Amino acid sequence: MAELIRGLDPDRIRANLAAVRAELGREDVEVLAAVKYVAVEELGALVEAGLTLVGENRAQDLVAKAGSEAGGRLTWDFIGQLQSRKVKQVLPHVRLIHSVASDSALGQLGRHASPGTEVLVEVNVAEEEGKGGVAPAELEAFIARCPVTVSGLMTMPPAAERPEDSRRWFAALAQLAADRGLTRLSMGTTQDFAVAAQEGATIVRVGSRLFR
After folding, report:
1. Cα torsion for 67, 3, 77, 30, to the nearest 10°?
2. What is the widest separation between alpha-carbon atoms in the chain?
3. Which residue of 12, 102, 206, 210 has the fewest C-beta atoms within 10 A of its own C-beta?
4. Does residue 28 lie in a domain region?
5. Domain at 183, CATH number
């Protein structure tokens, strides 16, 4: 397991955030700070730096961090692989779940979600074998089965050496969303967020670029 990040400098984070926003070139893109490796006691530095939206990959860490004093001043999304048995645990703490991709998760949402719950459906846009996400051909039916509002889509493109190599997959996800009138697109991470923004991302998930 990777070592947690400690000793964060709010001024450094603030400068990194400004650089990310400049590279995005769009004011309407939400910068989500991926805090999987940020220790709970460091969340105050994120607040001080002006970050407002954060995402956690692990349900138990989400509960602990969102329940902390500084964590309570942040808006939380769940961005990791969603285990259906964790849906009930995650829901009270998040604005959005980015990674809904199984019928078992839909079942738990039907049991535990409030009427205003919104989710993003994770799409395996490149149809990589063994990778999580709904296949593009199955997306329409999956959305129809979802018991809560689907407001957008999320993807993790295939591993690539160059950000430009991900462009086709971001464009494909944007088209899938546009065809269905979905307004949120969670795509792009530290290595390729600028390309994702060019292809219509509304949320980019940035980790190490903000903290280094």
Report:
1. 120
2. 47
3. 12
4. yes
5. 3.20.20.10
